[in-house]
Specification:
The chain is mainly alpha-helical and 79 residues long. It contains four helices and no strands.
């Protein structure tokens, strides 16, 4: 997901890849990553969480924190 948004080879993306050390990771790319993450997580990610998801490691930790079968925040598919 991140490699695709950054348009780089997945082999060069690691846990430390993020906003602070990746020139291509600009605000537009960050939005695209967050949209893909919401789709994968199955819900809308609260703004306060989005602000902290600034690296691949932080994104991986976030995904790991979601209980199996539960959306990331609130599911908007029925709204």
């Amino acid at each position: 997901m991140v490699a695709e948004a950054l348009q780089v080879d997945p082999a060069v993306v690691g846990a430390d890849t993020g906003v602070l050390n990746t020139e291509a990771w600009d605000s537009i790319v960050h939005i695209n990553i967050m949209l893909a993450l919401e789709e994968r997580a199955g819900g809308v990610i609260p703004h306060d969480r989005v602000a902290g998801l600034l690296s691949v490691g932080a994104i991986a930790d976030f995904l790991a924190s979601i209980p199996a079968g539960r959306p990331a925040a609130h599911d908007t598919s029925t709204a």
